[in-house]
Amino acid sequence: MTTERLGTAARPLRVAIIGAGPAGFYAADALIKQKDLVCQIDFFNRLPTPYGLVREGVAPDHESIKAVTRVYDKVAAAPNVRYFGNVTFGRDIFHEDVKQLYDQIIYAVGAQSDRKMGITGEDLDGSFPATIFVGWFNGHPDYRDLTFNLSHERVLVVGNGNVAMDVARILAADPEYLAKTDIADHALEALRKSKVREIVMLGRRGPAQAAFTNPELKEFGELDGVDVIIDPTEMELDPVSEASLADDKTARRNVELMRTYSEGGSTGAPRRIVMRFLVSPVGVIGSGNRVAAVTIERNQLKQAADGSLKAMGTGNYETLQCGMILRSVGYRGSPIPGVPFSDSSGTIPNVAGRVFQDRDEVLPGEYVVGWAKRGPSGIIGTNKPDSVSTVAAMIEDIPDLEGIADENRDLGAIENLLRSRNIDFVTYADWQILDAYETAAGAAQGRPRVKVTSVAEMMEIIRAGREA
């Protein structure tokens, strides 16, 4: 074993990043920018396509948000960064493989599953997590073959965050407006046939506690052919909520916008978004095995000992007929093979990004970033300081790391391993082939891109491009 320090030209730091979403790219960017650190970074991603939620989660009509991929492209094109797409951790490569070939590992795997509402009838046909619907209209390969029954006039969306807003907006928007975006073709076809005329959003707390941002709310009022309906009585705030607005600029502006909507009322537009507050679904009613209605309970806000406002049921109920319900009540991580996982928090247990097993056993050289680290909170940009802080811990730990054996430092070792397992991995150059194909198809239609939504088709295009 050499005594040469890790992170030098003689012994570059070898880093594996599991997942190629924003948090992973920001971590790689922070590593590249470290002065006096020589490192080699390899991304491993389950899908051939990089960028995670920027590609698969950002709404198709939010093209400006996707411009952040230009930053990620610079990272991926760096000479000391490699991309291995179409490689599933826990199936194609394993924890023990990565530990042998890399000095440090970063888990950037996000929060892949949805929280449930925990009410009767929640699993009836027509009841879905909002993220599945988002994946479907964004062309995520896992969800491309799903069908959503849009033949009903009313859909309920449970939640008051930006994902709930995106779902409601896409359901209400004119399909011809969406046709100018990179929405998946199968979703556009279904939305053109949609009979949905009313989307009802249910928030368990009041308008002052809604989690959406000002631009998302403002967009509702800019949709052609859509009325935004809010009962003025639901805009009456309790004294604590009213007082809280003084210190919260976003909430204050949200309330101002919603009061404007509540005063506007109906204009007779063909579609409407109805925003409800202080209501919680308590049961889904079925007709056969399909969603037919939802029972909701009226809430009131009560101040807890810590000063926060909790929504408490009042025992007053009503029933809303609907053909589909989409829940957006929070997300949680899922365990990945060989990596510690906290079932209670839905995250990889860590202290300052350092992964630990049990309460006091830090796993040397293993780190976590993004939602898998802190839980599902914040926007895309929130991942940058989060990743920077984890990288700071990584740099601090380098002097104490033994590092992998010198005989495992050959950069070709991981490629040889994947080939020996017949894994047709996708490089960054391969992704550029697919990217060029999608953007050319989009340009022909006046759209940013036309997404390829099947992994098999993606690989066909990439293989053809390699031969060319």
Notable features of this structure?
globular; alpha/beta; 468 residues; 33% helix; FAD/NAD(P)-binding domain; 2 domains; Rossmann fold
What does this molecule look like?
Helix 1 crosses helix 14, helix 6 (130-137) crosses helix 7 (162-172) and helix 7 runs parallel beside helix 10 (214-220). The model has no long low-confidence stretch (mean pLDDT 93). This protein has 2 domains: 13-112 and 332-426, NAD(P)-binding Rossmann-like Domain (Rossmann fold); 116-329, FAD/NAD(P)-binding domain, CATH 3.50.50.60. It is built from 17 helices and 18 strands. With 468 residues, the protein is an alpha/beta fold. The strands form 4 sheets. The protein has a 7-stranded mixed β-sheet with strand order 3-2-1-4-18-17-16, with helices on both faces. Strands 6-14-7-8-10-9 form a 6-stranded parallel β-sheet. Strands 11-12-13 form a 3-stranded antiparallel β-sheet, with no helix packed on it. 33% of the residues lie in helices and 22% in strands.
CATH class of the largest domain: Alpha Beta
Query: And the CATH topology of the largest domain?
Result: FAD/NAD(P)-binding domain
* Annotated CATH homologous superfamily of the largest domain: FAD/NAD(P)-binding domain
Global morphology: globular
End-to-end separation in angstroms reads: 44 Å
Number of strands: 18
| Number of DSSP helical runs | 17
> Which residue ranges are poorly predicted, with pLDDT under 50 across at least 5 consecutive positions?
none
In CATH terms, what is the architecture of the largest domain? Answer: 3-Layer(bba) Sandwich
CA radius of gyration is 24 Å
Counting structural domains, the number is 2
In terms of DSSP E residues, the strand content is: 15-25%
Mean pLDDT: 93
Which secondary-structure class do the elements indicate? alpha/beta
